[in-house]
């Protein structure tokens, strides 16, 4: 039996690729990763008005050529024109799934998965709580076994701290990082907790320097990109998880653990982020970080499986329709 082929097409953001990968893995597919960097003047046009989008690809882009995949997963605004073009070039055979609001009529795609804080709705729109992600119980169990020695010297309770950085909505200056690091140090001293901290590409070297200086003297392991990434191990082994407010993906992934998750507020924000954080708090999944460690109970968040089930259902419907048409 022929293997179902799958492409992931994004503009290269790790957060976008992780969402697509999470869905592909839930579908038990082995996707080919395609990164696109479209040029002007195409970027000035609505996604459904690009004349032959394949001509827009810059030198840094992967080539998009037939044979076209059975399933295409895109995420982000720049992926939408290619989803439409590949679906059209395949004669409608490619099943096109887009994650996040495509900013066009969703009916032009086969399925659109959006977080509930996005307003778009429709017959082929599935609404998720937070971001789709690739974190699973099996991966957490494996990461716990693999990384346990790396954090064995830290005292308990163990607190994982996930730090993002400035983006289009939030700011994180060295003065802000100083305040955050001092609160983390006070938490460690006041509770006897050990800290396992990871920064992101957006955190910045100056913020990392401040973090290291302010946490020097408390039991902490800080990962800033050197060596093997312990992110999943931190989630798996921690008793509590602290996350900066700037990343929907990091917050949702933290909530896959079922452990208490605390949000470290940053300067800035937006309506969409406020809606997201309000929903997660109302569901009992998160709470603002107030310098205390508390218990929590909620159903871990694994939306990729639910979206995958909907993809399978729609593919089965399409196949049944083909069979019925051929017998008519």
Kindly describe this structure.
- The structure is a single chain.
- With 328 residues, this protein is an alpha/beta fold.
- It has 2 domains: 152 residues, Rossmann fold (3-Layer(aba) Sandwich), CATH 3.40.50; 152 residues, Isochorismatase-like (Rossmann fold).
- 35% of the residues lie in helices and 18% in strands.
- The chain contains 9 helices and 14 strands.
- The chain has a 6-stranded parallel beta sheet, with helices on both faces.
- Helix 5 links the parallel strand 9 and strand 10.
- The two termini are 26 Å apart.
- The mean pLDDT is 95.
Indicate the multimeric state. single chain
* Largest sheet data: 6 strands, parallel
CATH architecture of the largest domain: 3-Layer(aba) Sandwich
- Counted up, domains total 2
- Name the strands of the widest sheet in spatial order: 2-1-3-4-5-6
Secondary-structure blueprint:
Blueprint: E1 6-10, H1 14-26, E2 32-35, E3 71-75, H2 80-89, E4 95-99, E5 111-115, E6 125-128, H3 137-151, E7 158-162, E8 170-171, H4 174-191, E9 194-198, H5 205-214, E10 220-223, H6 231-237, E11 240-244, H7 248-254, E12 261-264, E13 267-268, H8 271-282, E14 286-288, H9 303-326
Parallel strand pairs: 1-2, 1-3, 3-4, 4-5, 5-6, 7-9, 7-11, 9-10, 11-12, 12-14
Antiparallel strand pairs: 8-13
Helix pairs in contact: 1-9, 3-6, 4-5
């Amino acid at each position: 039996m022929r293997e179902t082929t799958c492409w992931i097409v994004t503009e290269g953001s790790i957060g976008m690729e992780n969402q697509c990968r999470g869905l592909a893995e839930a579908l038990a597919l082995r996707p080919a990763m395609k990164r696109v960097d479209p040029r002007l003047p195409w970027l000035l046009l609505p996604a459904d008005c690009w004349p032959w989008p394949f001509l827009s690809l810059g030198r840094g882009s992967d080539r998009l050529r037939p044979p076209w995949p059975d399933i295409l997963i895109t995420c982000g605004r720049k992926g939408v024109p290619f989803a439409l073009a590949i679906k059209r070039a395949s004669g409608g055979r490619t099943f096109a799934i887009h994650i996040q609001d495509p900013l066009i009529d969703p009916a032009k795609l086969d399925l659109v998965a959006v977080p509930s804080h996005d307003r778009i709705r429709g017959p082929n729109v599935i609404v998720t709580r937070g971001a789709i992600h690739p974190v699973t119980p099996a991966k957490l169990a494996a990461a716990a076994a693999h990384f346990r020695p790396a954090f064995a010297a830290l005292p308990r309770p163990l607190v994982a701290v996930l730090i993002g950085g400035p983006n289009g909505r939030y700011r994180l200056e060295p003065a802000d990082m100083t305040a955050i690091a001092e609160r983390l140090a006070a938490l460690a001293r006041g509770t006897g907790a050990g800290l396992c901290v990871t920064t992101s590409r957006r955190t910045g070297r100056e913020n990392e320097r401040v973090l290291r200086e302010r946490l020097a003297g408390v039991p902490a392991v800080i990962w800033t990109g050197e060596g093997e990434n312990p992110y999943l191990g931190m989630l798996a082994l921690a008793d509590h998880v602290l996350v900066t407010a700037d990343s929907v993906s990091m917050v949702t992934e933290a909530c896959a653990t079922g452990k208490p998750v605390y949000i470290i507020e940053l300067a800035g924000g937006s309506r969409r982020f406020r809606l997201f954080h309000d929903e997660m708090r109302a569901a009992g999944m998160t709470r603002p970080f107030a310098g205390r460690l508390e218990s929590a109970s909620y159903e871990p968040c694994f939306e990729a499986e639910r979206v995958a089930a909907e993809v399978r259902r729609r593919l089965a419907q399409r196949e049944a329709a083909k069979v019925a048409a051929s017998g008519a």
